[in-house]
Amino acid sequence: MQLQAETSRVSLPVRVVLRSLLDPMQRRLWQRGPDGEIIRAAPDEITSQEGLTPGELESGEPEPQPRRRAHLGLALRLGFRDTYDYLGAVLVMSLAAALIPMAGMFGGYAAGTALSSPFPDRLSALLAILMALLGGAAVGGPVAAGLYRFSRNAAARSEPEVFDLGWGFRSALGRSVGLGLIQALGAALLAGNGYFYLFQRQTVWVVLGAIFGYLLLFWLLMLLYQWPLFIEQDLAPVAAVRKSALLVLDNFGYSLGVGLVAALLSVLLWAFLVPGVLLWGGAMALISTQATRELLRKYGVLGPDPTLDPIADETHEFGGRGWHE
Questions:
Q1: Mean of all residue pLDDT scores within the chain
Q2: Contacts by 56-64, CB closer than 8 A, 24 or more apart
Q3: What is the per-residue pLDDT for 38?
Q4: What pLDDT is recorded for position 42?
Q5: Is the pTM value of this prediction over 0.85?
Q6: SS3 state of residue 325
C-alpha cells in the first residue's frame, strides 16, 4: 500500500501534464496583462499542483473536466458577419467559382461526346456525363481550394485577398483536383444508385435505394467540413474526407443544423438565380469555414476567434459571463 501511494504521488505531475496536453482547452489559455492587453497564459510548471482539487491530491487521479461545447449560433453569426465584411470579394469570387467550373464541365462534356460517338447511345451519354464531372472537378477543385483559402484567411483575420482564389492552382493543384474528384464521384455514385434502386418494384431494392439516399445526406454533411479541413490543416484529400466523417459522427446535431441552414440559404439564393451566382459560393465557404473552426476550437486545435474576447469566451464555457449562443 505504501509503494502504491508513493507511485501515485510520483505519477501525479505526469498526469497533470498529460491532461494539459490531451485536453488543452480545459486550462486557461489567455489572461489580461498589466495594461489590460490580452496575452497567452504562461504554462504551469510540471511540478506545480495548482488547480488540483483535494480529491485529485489525495487520490492522484485527475478528475474529468468539461469539454468546450461548439456553438452553432456563434459559428453561423461569424460566417454571416464575414460574408458582410468581405461582400465585395465575395461577389467577385462567387462569380468566378460559378463560371470557371461550369466551363470545365461543358468542356468535359463536349470532349466526352466527341470521344464516345462510336459507342451505343446510353453508353455514350454515360461517358459524356462522366467526362463532364471530371472536367468540372479538374478545374473546380483548385478554384474551391482558393475560395476556401480566402475564407480561412478572412476567419483568421490573416490578410485575405482576392488573389487567394488562385492559391489552389499555385500551391495545391494535385491535391485540390484529387479532393474535387472524390467529392464529385462520391456524390454521383450515391445519387445514381439511390435513384436507380428507388424506382425498382421489389421492396428490397427500394430499401437499398433509401439506404443510398441516407448515405448521400451523410456525404453532403461531410462536404461542409472537407475543404475547410483541407486548408486549415494542410491535409491530403483522403485525410480530409476521413476527418470530416469523424466530425459529423461526433457532432451530428451540430452538423445537421449547419446543413439545414446551408440548404435553406441555397434554396433562397438559387431561386432567383442571380443571387446564387453572385453570393452562394463565397457565403457557403465562409459559413462552413467558421462552422469547422468552431469544431476545431472544441477539440483544442484552434485558439479563440481573433475577433472575440478570448477571456470572455473561455469564462462563459466554465460558468461565467461571455459569449452565449
A1: 80
A2: 56/12, 57/12, 59/8, 60/8, 60/9, 60/11, 60/12, 60/15, 61/8, 61/15, 62/15, 62/16, 62/19
A3: 55
A4: 55
A5: no
A6: coil
Joined together, the cell numbers standing for residue 47 give 511540478
Confidence of residue 172 (pLDDT cuts 50, 70, 90): very high
How is residue 162 annotated by DSSP?
G
Phi, psi of 116 (to 5 degrees): -100, 10
Neighbours of 94 (CB within 10 A): 24
Q: What is the pLDDT of residues 72-128, one digit of tens each?
A: 999 999 999 999 999 999 999 999 999 999 998 888 888 888 887 777 777 778 788
Cell numbers describing residue 263: 440548404
- Closest C-alpha among 295, 142, 102, 174 to residue 150: 142
According to DSSP H, which parts of the chain are helical? 2-22, 54-59, 72-85, 87-115, 121-155, 167-171, 173-198, 203-232, 237-250, 252-270, 274-275, 281-298, 310-317
Print burial letters for 225-259: b (CB count within 10 Å at least 16), e (below 16).
bbbbbbbbeebebeebbebbbebbeebeebbebbb
Signed CA dihedral, 143, 148, 151, 152: sign only: negative
Partnered with residue 39 across adjacent β-strands are 31
